[in-house]
Amino acid sequence: MAIQSPSLDIAGTAPLGAALTPVSRGYWQSVRRRLGRDPVTLICGAVLLLIVTSAVFAPLLGLADPYKTSMIRRLYPLGSPNFLLGTDELGRDMFSRLIYGGRLSLFMGVTPVACALLIGGSLGIAAGFSGGWVNMMIMRIMDVFYAFPSVLLAISLSGAMGAGAENTLLALTLVFIPPICRVSESVTTQVRGFDFVDAARASGAGALTIVRVHVLGNVLGPILVYATSLISVAIILAAGLSFLGLGVKPPEPEWGLMLNTLRQAIYVNPVLAALPGVMIFITSICFNLMSDGLRAAMDVKA
Amino acid sequence: MSALLEVRDLDVTFMTPDRTVHAVNGVSFDVKRGETLGILGESGSGKSVTLRSILRLHPEHRTRWSGSIKLEGVEILTMDRRTLNDLRGQKIAMIFQEPATAFDPVFTIGHQIAETVRRHTGKSESDALKRARELLEMVRIPSPAQRLKAYPHEMSGGMRQRAMIALALSCNPSLLLADEPTTALDATVQIQVLLLIRELQRELDLGVIFVTHDIGVAVEVSDRIGVMYAGKLVELASVEQMVDAPRHPYSRGLLASTVQGSMRGQRLEAIPGAPPDLGEVPTACSFAPRCKFAEPQCVSAPPTLGSVGDSHLVRCVRAEAPA
Amino acid sequence: MDALVPRQDRAKDRGGPAQPLLLAEGLRKHFPVMGGLLGRTTKVVRAVDDLSLSVAKGETLGVVGESGCGKSTVARLLIRLLKPDKGTMVLDGDPVDEPHGITVAELRRQVQMVFQDSYASLNPRLTIAETLAFAPKAHGLPASEARERVRDLLAKVGLEPDTYMERYPHELSGGQRQRVNIARALALRPRLVILDEAVSALDKSVEAQVLNMLVDLKDELGLTYLFISHDLNVVQYLSDRVLVMYLGKIVELGSVEAIYGNPQHPYTRALLSARPSMDPRKRTKEAPIQGDPPNPIDPPSGCRFRTRCPFAEDVCARLEPQLADTRAQAVACHMRVAGSGHSKAAAP
Prior knowledge:
The complex is a heterotrimer.
Chain A: H1 27-36, H2 39-56, H3 94-130, H4 132-146, H5 150-161, H6 165-192, H7 195-202, H8 207-243, H9 255-261, H10 270-298
Chain B: E1 5-15, E2 20-31, E3 36-40, H1 47-54, E4 63-71, E5 74-75, H2 81-90, E6 92-95, H3 109-121, H4 125-138, H5 144-147, H6 157-168, E7 175-179, H7 187-204, E8 207-212, H8 215-221, E9 224-229, E10 232-238, H9 239-244, H10 249-257, H11 296-300, E11 306-307, E12 313-314
Parallel strand pairs in B: 3-8, 3-9, 6-7, 7-8
Antiparallel strand pairs in B: 1-2, 1-4, 4-5, 9-10, 10-12, 11-12
Helix pairs in contact in B: 3-4, 4-6, 6-7
Chain C: E1 22-35, E2 40-55, E3 60-64, H1 71-78, E4 86-91, E5 94-95, H2 104-110, E6 111-114, H3 128-138, H4 143-156, H5 161-164, H6 174-186, E7 192-196, H7 204-221, E8 224-229, H8 232-238, E9 241-246, E10 249-255, H9 256-261, H10 266-273, H11 314-318, E11 324-325, E12 329-331
Parallel strand pairs in C: 3-8, 3-9, 6-7, 7-8
Antiparallel strand pairs in C: 1-2, 1-4, 4-5, 9-10, 10-12, 11-12
Helix pairs in contact in C: 3-4, 4-6
């Protein structure tokens, strides 16, 4: 049941019994307020911030050289003096490599999603807003890509184009365009059905103006939330491709690749071998939880 | 004859992390068998909240109740879950504005009514189906035998509403709660359903509480009408008293602002302003800010419900004053 | 008095008072219903079928009918949110969307619409000022002038500009939101405003406020209204002429006095007597007609009302009654046409 908001509906005739709250709260302000009350999302955000900043500023942190190998100090266990997290199979400092590895892994996770967001989002909004045969054309093409499981598609594209970071990025972008397009199309179709879009059309405004003013503000939120949840998938896929030897080439530090090269160490020092996996796990779960938290905070009928 | 349902000093408060809403503040009324009480109010007046409290349909962890609701002398607000579940459907039934919510789209109407009959009475399947057919006949659905096999989406709005009434009456309740059951219906269908509810109430000697925002509908079905405003009953009177001589300024305003065709060309007497926020327990008359008769006395303390004659109750300090 | 809309700023009256402001001829809209395995069109909803109407300058034309009768489709056709399958429209002498006529964009400058759902028709992410300034800006008004117009509009609909300009829709009550919607419809200074169930979702006391305001605005701005509603009382209160629709067709059309005082079509009579009586001593004893309106997919042959009409005869199933003038109003019923073959019709 609707509870009336505290306000006076008047034509200047009512005796004023209550005062209107002078400050008006916008949508994003209320979202921020809700996020502020959600500890899980806040913690995830903080962890991600820590991982991202340390990765970005890795060269300034005074870490050991992540490329410097040593045949003598291979596979030091965790907690060794000077090597907080031990060393890998070639004697490189694990801590330094994990931090530096974040640079590539995060880059490989975020970039394809961002590119796919730009392309898939535009296509989806165009399809959703135009409807009719434009929608049909775009969405049927997306369905073709959708028919392949994303892992398989990524592997086959990378395999066909050859190993390397650029090709991995390209393959992952192609993998993420269809799902983002589909989500964008469905939220846009929903928004297009609202009377305020009809009212805007009835005011004689052009399609681009209507999309910019009335559609974007209402669909960007849900699309971004969805894209955030894809970042974790992208990180895992990128790591997976590297693990299979289809992605980044050694000796670059990258979590997936590190997982691969530490494979042999699993019987010698299993904890050490699992560390890159732990990083992947933490990062992706943080992205996922944060995306859930954002969705909850934005999914409010004010 | 004692009352079928007694509601005393009912308070309902909803607590959410964002805000507290005092939706119902001290509502008391009785309903007798064979009587229809209409509860009239605008959105946010607490009329539906009051009605739903009788079946305790609000989410338990966010709702605070106080006061008392007794059905045939048995307290409902403190009743345990199992007894409450027996009460729902068996003694008290409810019909809603949107019949689509009452039926499962994947089963036929007949199956769903028969299922309810079986669950509550333990009848055999064929007996339950026979009973379902009788019920459809009772609510005047044409060719009931065929309609038993229809799915909810195959029926028109009016037929679905009738089927929902049949479902509600399947276990012979003594009290029927109706929450705006005709609001979504077309005019020519609405009058059919109103007449049906009135006839069934007489035939089955039901007590009915009929919640609506439409004065015309309330006058058409009710024996007594209670007017609610900001979570309080501001006036309770027989339907004749209410139409002929409403005493509370809000009831009067509501009647005056209801558009009648004959008012053509005249200026409508609108009540200025909007209902108050229910965030706090009112310390004065909630209607005072919109009332053209407001005096200092109105804002000093909340007025009490006083009698102004033959079972006519009004919550206004000026109730004794001539109209 | 008329500070908001200097007359010269509005589209000029061209044909003089006798020329209808809006004329629609033979409008038809059928919606395909997708079905079957391959999404083929299997059925059509005949929402509006060969409907003609005219709206005179300065009048309020009421449109009544039950859900599914096509009244909202008519509104959307008239403002071209829907493209009619067939039919022509003429706005003050200018054919719409035809060579030598005016464009749809020009039509929409002169015809505006207010929707029923006050919440869904406001963009939740925009402030009231942004919503109101949208159309004027889209038509090239500079920001400062648009802002000035927003202030005028809010004042016109009884909302204090300084208090409401920077608010969001969810901070307003239903009545306030509907005032904003009306202000938006006036933002382009239209001549005809289509009000599609514009007060139906409001509480009665608020409805009265908004109706009073609509009457004031019409006088002040010299507007013409097309008022669509299912509430017969409100239509009677506001309208000069009334059009009754049933399943996509006009069944009766006439002055408000004729329709309410002397209804000719059995459906109009049923609608009128289905109104609650407001008198506990004179309660309705029997429903005027039984059953629900049929589905607009596959409407009945001949007269579409015949399945619920107490006077239906053979001729009603065979022949579709045409809208024919009687003395005071036009009625589509065989009983009112001399020599139609209906036993109640006069001899030819």
